[in-house]
Each structure stands twice: as structure tokens, then as C-alpha cells.
Amino acid sequence: MAAAPASTGTDPIKVDIWSDVQCPWCYIGKRKFEAGVAQFDGAVEVEYHSFELAPDTPVDYDGTPSEYLSQAKGMSLAQVAEMLERVTGIAESVGLHYDYDSVHQTNTVISHELLHYAKAHGRQLDMKERLLKAYFIDGRHIGRIEDLADLAAEIGLDRADVVQALTAHDFLADVKADVAQANEYGIQGVPFFVIDGKYGISGAQDPATFTQALNQILTERSEEKTA
Fold it and tell me: What pLDDT is attached to residue 227?
């Protein structure tokens, strides 16, 4: 992975995060990352990037998340139920109340387009949180333009403008660029965190892992300044 340009000790540390809005570990990882940042004595700048776990899923999938996972992973429904019970318990441990009985399995490409729209309007982090909550907790549909426009309006974005941008696929090229970058980096699963352009952290790691990585960057910057 290519290193980022040299930075000063006072510059925010850039963290690029590849994730999907229907990835349960991405929401858990987001909370653990946020906890790690809270223990870090420095500035952090976060940008989310698109990753599609199931790009072939239809927008209106005719089945439950359990049925989808059973088909996709070749697992029995009993095995899937056990897996979902485990991930739901871990989500609870970081304050997230997953409701898989209400989840709408769908294609997420259009929601990634919305995240790029939100980034262009300075609201990407708010939009990311709203989409994850909508999918895992609120039982909202995140694969259709009208539903996504409603969610965007909830955080103060212009609903009509969102509909227009998503209908025209104004940000689809940005989604594809993110996916291509993930392939370049060799990212095969999410969440994946790139710290300061040079350190990769895969998965929903403990908060201390993120704090340690951020502190390591500060140490390296300090050493560069005194060298």
C-alpha cells in the first residue's frame, strides 16, 4: 500500500474506511473505531468508501436475510440462525440493537451513490450512520431511490435533489472507483480501515487496536520532525 505524503504532527490523521451498509460487522466496527478515536488525543478525519458484499442481489430480494445467507454461504438455516444470534449479541455489546426479523435484504449500490452525494454536501458521516441504523435497526429499505431520499431528508439533505442525483446516477462512477481502489489494495472483506494511507486494519477490531495505530502515526510524525 502506497504511503501518504509526509504530514505535520498537527494535521488530522486521515482514516479511509471501506464498508457496506448491509455489513453487520461494519456497524460494529464503526462503533469500536469511534471508541478507539475517543481514547486518542489527536484529530482524525474519516472518509467512507464503497464496498459491495453482494452486488448481484436484486433490489427487492424475495426472501429473508436468513434465506439469503443460507444460499450465499451454503449454510443451513439453523447455522445461519446461530451466526445471526452471535453477531446480534456482539452488536448489543457495543450498544446496537439489531433486528434481523425486520431487515430488507437488497442491493446496496444506490445507497453507496447516496453516500457519495452526501460527501459532496459535507454530510457523509451523518448519512452513513443513518443508513446503517435504517438497515439493521429500523427495518427500512435502503435499495430504492424514494426510500433513500426519505432517509437523506431526515438528516437535512434536499430530498428532490437527492432523487434527481440518484435517478441520473451522478455518483455511480465514484462508487466504481472506490471498488476498484479496494481491489488494488487487495481488500476482500469489510470493514477495512486504512490509517494515514499506510496501515491497514481489517475487521471490527477492539478499540485499543485503533488507538494504538493512531498513536503510532503520531510517534512516526514526531520522529520525522526531529530527524
Answer: 66
